[in-house]
């Protein structure tokens, strides 16, 4: 494996001067976290080829803004940042996607896409620089192909790997692994990867002269968004909790000795581009692009068909379960929603909210807490965005997937009418508190309780 020396922040020209400063002010020393790409079976050329291939697919699937003024601005900002990315020099390009959601993603080899909603939501150029730094870091740290490496290696086997790692390793591996889609590259970054991208991203923004605290400000915005949505935003469902990210980003800034002198926060160019974006016809939401709405939400208020007693299997990479055969599933990784047609309603803010069905997700409690304490934290967290939430029946012990779990009943304001009853099941997993929320209006709950129980009882963790 190639070494991956981090670029020294200070050039040798000012080394003496800085040494003097170090002696005088040891607090200001740069003790940044050193990061390197993980185990990877692909070459950096593979990253570029793969990114190119998938960028074509992505650009067909997504409504691209194709506005030279906006893309030029993004590229100009992006190129200034990539100079401070460590390791391999990838051919970075930056493009705006005409979607209102707050989102951005990076393909291996340097293709970076920023949703228009993100550019419009950012308060200043330093926030956008922080996000671009995060995406550039996914590229520089090769998270995409490293993730693919981890997911296919066990199924392909070491012997096969040895023989295919010839001239066309990429193609053969892809064939050998079978189903590996765009999603497996885009959406399966681990929380460690996300955390690394935050850390390196803040280093890059800092080195390019931006106020690195802006990335933390942007996470505050994300946290607000998540609270408003009720259902976790798809893209952020795999990310560490915003609170944890803010903490880690601030810690890294401290390690670097604080923001650079004369840190840049905003620019006239950014303000101009943002004004221009707001002057364009509004961008559609991503949910409106795929067919109609991924949740098939109805605002008619009609009760969904009763849950079928026949069950169907659902499998993600972390668990398996059975759920009613007339329900749908939506989601990725550990964040999954199972619901009947019409089971997702629009709340007062127009955001989709689960009214009938089961939602499975992960919560990151403060470190080293018991199942009981983590469950309390989760309930407090849910209450922040649901002020009407109250405990209906105190936590009681049960099993989930053969593990010790807690069963708690909650009452909340239903997005449809009156009160809803929520059955919360929690269990501790190596990566945080795993929870399942089964919900129905209180008046209809008895018609759903058997289905909820069948779903929860069928739960099986994959490892
Ligand atoms: Zn990320």
Helix/sheet category: alpha+beta
Bound molecules: zinc ion
In terms of DSSP E residues, the strand content is: 15-25%
Q: What is the share of helical residues? A: 40-55%
Strand order of the largest sheet: 6-7-10-14-13-12-11
Q: What's the total count of β strands?
A: 15
Please mark out the parts with pLDDT under 50 across 5 or more consecutive residues, or reply none. Answer: 1-27, 156-170, 172-183, 231-235, 288-300
Radius of gyration: 24 Å
**Number of DSSP helices?**
16
* Global morphology: globular
Number of discrete domains: 2
Main sheet record: 7 strands, antiparallel
Average pLDDT number:
80
N- to C-terminal separation? 29 Å
Description:
With 463 residues, the protein is an alpha+beta fold. The chain has two domains: 25-275, no CATH class; 286-461, Mog1/PsbP, alpha/beta/alpha sandwich (Protein Transport Mog1p, Chain A, 3-Layer(aba) Sandwich), CATH 3.40.1000. It has helices spanning 15-24, 44-61, 68-82, 116-121, 125-140, 143-156, 158-164, 169-177, 182-186, 191-207, 213-229, 242-255, 268-279, 286-289, 371-385, 449-457; strands spanning 93-97, 104-107, 111-115, 311-315, 319-324, 327-332, 335-340, 344-346, 352-354, 357-363, 390-400, 403-413, 419-429, 432-441, 460-461. The strands form four sheets. Strands 6-7-10-14-13-12-11 form a seven-stranded antiparallel beta sheet, sandwiched between helices. The longest helix is centred in the first third of the chain and has 18 residues, at 44-61. The chain is globular. The two termini are 29 Å apart. 39% of the residues are buried.
